[in-house]
Amino acid sequence: MSDSTTDALSAVAVDRLSLGEPQWLREQRAHAWDVYERTPMPTTRLEQWRYTDLAKTLDLSALTLSESQPAQDDPTTWPERLRVAMDEDHAASGHIVFIDGRVVHSDLDPSLVAKGVILMSLHEALDQHSHLLREHLTTTVPAEDGKFEALNAALWADGIFLYVPKGTQLDLPVRVTRWLSESGTAYFSRVLIVAESHSRISYVDEVLSDDFSSQTFTSTAVEVVARDGSQVQYVAVQRLGTNAFYQSVQRTLAHRDSKLDTLNVGLGASVSRVDLNAKLIGPGANSDMLGLYFGDASQHFDFNTSQDHLEPNTGSDLLYKGALDGDSRAVFRGIIRVHPGAQKTDAYQTCRTLLLSPGARVDSLPNLEIEADDVKCSHGATVGQLDAEAKFYLMSRGLDRVQAERLVVLGFLGEVMSRLPLGGVVDKVTRAIEEKLAQHG
Amino acid sequence: MSDVPVLRIEGLEAKVAESELGILNGLDLQIGKGEIHAIMGPNGSGKSTLAKVLAGHPGYEVTSGTVTFRGEDLLTLEADERSLAGVFLAFQYPVEIAGVSIANFLRTAVQAHLPEGEELDIFDFSDILTERMAMLDMDVTFAERHVNDGFSGGEKKRNEILQMAMLKPKLAVMDETDSGLDIDALKIVADGVNKLLAEDPDMSVLLITHYQRLLDYIKPHHVHVMVDGRIVESGGPEVALELEANGYRTYETIEPSANGSAPVA
After folding, report:
1. By C-alpha distance, which of A157, A236, A217, A141 is closest to A189?
2. Domain count, chain B
3. Domain for residue A3, yes or no?
4. Is the pLDDT at A4 greater than 60, yes or no?
C-alpha cells in the first residue's frame, strides 16, 4: 500500500462530497484532506500499530467510494439480515437505518422530538441544525489526530447526529442498524452524540454484512460529549463478514459528574481496529469501558484504548474480555494516563482472554502513566485456556463438547454484558456468539 | 434383582494418561439394580480414579479390563454419552463455571437428556426445578447463582445432589461426598440422597469414602475395601465397622503393594 491513494479516495472525491455543503464544512474537508496527505501511513514501527501491519492488511488504493443511489426508506426492499437484526431489537426511542453508507431511514418518538431531542442523518442536520454541527463536528476527533482520523474527516459520506437537550431523559435506547453490501468499497461515516447537562441516553449501533468477495473498508469516527451530570451509554456491535476491514475511532468526553460508558462488541470482519479514548474532563466524571470479542478462523482484532484523567475525583473502569478460536488473534493495548492535578483518581484496566485453540494468540499490553500522587490505579491482563476440568464437569452432565464449550465461553464473556445490561443487546450478542460457536463444532 | 447387573467391572486396569503411572490394578466389582455399595480405602488407593474412569475423565487411560453398564460397554462412550446412558458422578471437587447460572446449566443438561428432537418446555422445567429444590430444602434463589462460584463446601455438595435429582441417574457414583463437610452439612446431603433413593428404589449407588461416618447416614448393602488399585475385601456393613476399629493398616499388611511399599494415608 502507498500513501497516495488512487482516483477513488482523492481531493476530487472530497470536492464532489463538498458540493452544496456550507463553506465551513467545505473548508473542514479540504483541511482534513490536506492533513491526510501530509500524514504518513502508520507502520509497525509505531508502538500503536506494532501488531497490525497495514502494509499487509489494507490496500486503500484498491477501494472505490460508493456510487450507488441511497436505498429506499421501505423495509420490504431491505436485505433480510438487516430486517432480522432490527426485529431482534427491543423497544427503542428512535431508529436510524444505514444502507451502504447512507442513512435511508430515521425515526424518533414524537414526544421526544417535542422536547427538542434531535436524531437524524448528518445531511439533514446540516440543513436544520447547522450551528450545532459547526460547533461540534470534528472537534472531539479532529483530523490532526492521525491518518485515519483525517481521511474520515475529509471523506465522510453520511453520519448520525444525536442531540439530547438539558435535563431530557430517554428511557429507551436509540438503535442504529447498518448494512453494507458492496465489495471493494470504502465507507466513511461519523457519529456525533451530544448529551446536554443532566440528560440521559443509550445509543446502540450495530453494523453487519455478508462476506465480501474483496476487501471492503469501513471507517467510523465517533464523537460523544456528555455534559455535566449526564448519563450516556454508547454501544457498538460489529458483525461484518470476511474481507471487511473495520476501523473505528471513538472519543468520549465526560464532563463534571457525568457517567459515560461504552461497550464495543467485536464478532466479525477479517481485521478490526478500534481506537477508543475516554477523556474524563470534569471533576467527578466516570466512565466504564467494556469490550467483548470472539474471534475465529484468521480474524484479527486490535483494540487500542486510553483513559485520560484530567480532573480530580474521576473514575474509569475498563474490562475487555475475549475468546479466540482457530488461528484468530487479538491485540489489546491500553493506557491509563493520570494527568497532573487529577488527584483521587480511580482507574482500572483489565483484559482477559480465553484461548480456545492452539493456533489462537493474544498480545496484551497494559500501561500506566501517572502524574498525580493520590490515586488508585491498577491494570492486569490474563490469558487462559478452556479449562479441561470444567469441560469434563459439564460433559459428565450430558452436555456434548460444543454445548460445554458454549456454556463456558458465554459464561466467561457474560460478565461484560452483565455490566451493561441493555435490553436486547445481551440476547443479540449471545445469539451471535452461539452462531459462531456452532460453526466450530 | 435382575440377571444383568447395572455395573460390572472386570480386571480393570487404568493409568494416568500419557504416563506410566498405573492406579487401578485389576479391579473387579459388580453392582446390581437398587444396590448401595461403598468402597473404602486409604488415600492413594485409587478410589477417586475409579470414579473418574467410570465417568469418562480424559485424564485417565484404561489399559486392560472391561466395564459394562446395563449390558453395554461403558468404556467406548464419551463422558456425555455415559451421562445420557444414566451414569452420574457426584464430584469430590465440583468445578466452578464462571458466569453460568445453575438454572441455565441444568436447563442445558436436562435438554441434553431428552430424546432427539424433543424440546424442553421452559415452564415445565421451572416447575420441576422448583419442586426438586423444595425437596432438598434449598432456597429457589440458589438456582440463580453461578455454578459453584464462591460456594461453601456444603453448597457445592448440595449442588451435586440437586443435579443428581434433576438428571435421575441409574447409577450414582459419589466420590468422597463427605469430604470437607461438617456433620450438619453431611446430614443434609445424605438426607437428599436418601430421598432420591426412596423415590427411585431401582437407583444404584456407589459411595466412595475414606471414612465410616457417611455410612451412618447412607446405609450400604455391600462394603468393599480398596487398596493399591484393587478390591481386597468385600462384605456387608460390618466391614466398615471393622475398618473404623482397626484402620487400613491390616489390609496393607495382608496385601502389600506391588513395589513392596504400601502407600500410607
Report:
1. A157
2. 2
3. no
4. no
pLDDT of residue A84: 87
B165 domain-assigned:
no
Alpha helices of A19-109 — where are they, by DSSP H? Answer: 23-38, 54-57, 80-88
CB contact under 8 A, A398 and B109: yes
* Residue A5 pLDDT > 80: no
Determine the pLDDT at residue A353: 96
Q: What is the pLDDT of residue A429?
A: 86
Per-residue pLDDT band at A93 (split at 50, 70, 90): very high
Q: Provide the whole-model pTM.
A: 0.85
- Chain A with chain B: Cβ pairs closer than 8 A: 82
Both B176 and B250 in one domain: the answer is yes
pLDDT for A3: 46
A404: chain B residues, CB-CB within 8 Å: 80
In a mutational test of the A interface, the residue from B53, B74, B95 whose CB has the highest number of chain A CBs within 10 Å is B95
Which residue numbers in chain B have pLDDT < 70?
A: 1-3, 252-265
Same-domain status, B67 and B198? yes
Distance (Å, whole) CA A151 – CA B154: 61
pLDDT for position B262: 43
Burial (Cβ within 10 Å: 0-12, 13-18, ≥19) of residue A439: exposed
8 Å CB contact of B80 and A392: no
Where does A19-146 have alpha helices with state H?
23-38, 54-57, 80-88, 110-114, 122-128, 130-136
> Is there a single domain that holds both residue B188 and residue B233?
yes
**Structural domain of residue A433, as residue ranges?**
11-438
pLDDT in tens, B99-157: 899 999 999 999 999 999 999 999 999 999 999 999 988 999 999 999 999 999 999 99
pLDDT digits (tens, 9 = 90+) for A324-354: 999 999 999 999 999 999 999 999 999 999 9
Best A350, A354, A387, A392 residue to mutate vs chain B (most B CBs within 10 Å): A392
- Sign of the torsion angle spanned by Cα atoms A227, A233, A239, A242: positive
Calculate what percentage of chain A has a pLDDT beyond 70: 98
Q: What is each CA distance from A144 to A40, A149, A158, A402, in whole angstroms?
A: 12, 7, 20, 47
Nearest CB neighbour to B109, from listed A399, A412, A414: A399
- On whether both B104 and B76 belong to a single domain, the answer is no
Residue B246 confidence (pLDDT): 85
* Grid cell at residue A229: 451530570
Indicate the pLDDT class of residue A14, thresholds 50, 70 and 90: very high
Task: Answer yes or no: do B176 and B79 share one domain.
Answer: yes
A394 touching B, CB under 8 A? yes
Q: Do B104 and B82 belong to one domain?
A: no
In a domain, B127, yes or no: yes
- Helices B102-113 and B153-167: angle between axes, nearest 10 degrees: 30
Residue A107: inside a domain: yes
Same domain, B80 and B211: yes
Tell if the CB–CB gap between B83 and A393 is shorter than 8 Å: no
A408 touches chain B (CB under 8 A): yes
> pLDDT, tens digit, for every residue of A117-128?
999 999 999 999
Same structural domain, B83 and B177: yes
Q: How far apart, in Å, are the Cα atoms of A315 and each of A347, A352, A376, A412, B74?
A: 6, 20, 9, 25, 57
CATH number assigned to the domain comprising residue B38: 3.40.50.300
In a domain, A1, yes or no: no
Q: By residue range, what is the domain housing residue B21?
A: 7-92+172-254
